[in-house]
Structures are given as structure tokens and as C-alpha cells.
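Practice problem: predict the structure.
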Amino acid sequence: MKATERHHLKENEFETWVIGVKDWYEANRNLVIYGGFALLLLAVGVAGTVAYRQSAAAKAAGSLAEAMSVAEAQVVAPTAAEAGKAPTQPAGTFPTDKARLEAALPKLMAVADAYPAADAGIMARYRAASALVALGKTAEGIQRYQEVAAKGTGIYRVMAKLGIADAQVAAGQFDQAIASYKEVSALNADDAPADGILMQLARAYRLAGKTDEAKKTFKRVADEYPQSPYAPLARREMESSGPLDVASR
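Answer:
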């Protein structure tokens, strides 16, 4: 076949294809128009959702930063009073840690309630739980920690469960704390420092008067994590109360 004939054949094939596309468009004009409109709406919806989420996240982060500026403000004693005047508190500071926590708590909970599923809201709830425990409101603090554990994942969940155990120790609820530390240890989470959790568990055992269990747990830290910074302390703790009871080995 000559080159000119092949060229004409290709032109005819292309012309046939163009006519076919044109005929299909004429027959399906409404489908194309409405389908294109639907795709446009979908694209606008997706873009709007992304923009809204970014905006909400930015607002949540800003609110958390404002609350944290109170929670981490300096504690400074009031300046000496001049004659006939009351002592003055430097701006942006608090006279005691208790006053600072009491001021930060409602701000943290406002962020937590406004953005319950956002990272900023979950972190705010965690800090509120810590503040409550520090203020002696252990039961309410544990409840907030439980909410974080339910809403959060990964490191948030681990931190919340550790917070519960630490709060139980602070409240003298040693058996409950032991169970909580064991639960966290059993997670085998990458975000959880296994050696640190075992140290806390051993101390809870000791506070509960369960000396042999405490020694065995300290021994686990020393044997299983010899390079851990906790290992030397674990050995000292293990040896300080004498040898383990043979029956409990």
C-alpha cells in the first residue's frame, strides 16, 4: 500500500471516530451535562470538606494554645506591697500552682468539649484530667482519663491509661493501680515504654505491701532491659529488701 493511501485511510478512520463521538454526544447530551454537573458538585463538596476540616483543626489548635498558655504560665509570688496598697500579681502569672490549675481547668474543658474528636480536644481533655488529679479531684480526673482512652488511639490511649494508674496510686488505690499498670503493659504498644511501665508496676506492688511481686518485677526490668536507664535503679530496689522468697520464684 502506498504512503498516500495509508494517509487517506487514517484520515477516514479519524473522521469516522469523530462522527461517532459527535453522534454519541448528541444522543446523550443530558447525561453528559448532568454527569459533569454532578462531578463538579462532588469536587466542590470535597474541597469544601477539606477546607472546613483544616479550618476546624486550626481553630482547635488555637484554642488549645490559649488554654495551655494558662496551664503553663509562671508561678510567681506577688510583688511586695507599697505602703497602703495590696501586693500586686505580675501580669500573666499566678501566685500558686493551685491557682494556675484552677484557672486553666475550665479553659481546657472548653476546648475538650468543643472539639471532642480532634487531637487538640483530646489533648485538652488529657491535661484537664491531670489538673483534676493534681487538685485532689481524683475520681473526676480518672473519669476524664477514661474519656480520653475511649476517644483517643495510639499514644493518647496509652497516656490516658497510665494517667488512670498514676491517679489510683495517688489516691492509695494500689490494687486498682496494679491492675491498670498490668493492662497497659499487656498492650505491648510501641508508644509505651515497657521498662518504665514495669517500674511503675513494681512500685505499686511495693506500696501495696506485695514485696515479693515488687522484687520480681524489678528483676524483670534489670534482666529484660539491661541497657535501660531504669536498670541500675531496679537492681538497687530489688536488692534493698533482701532476697526473693524461694516459694514465689
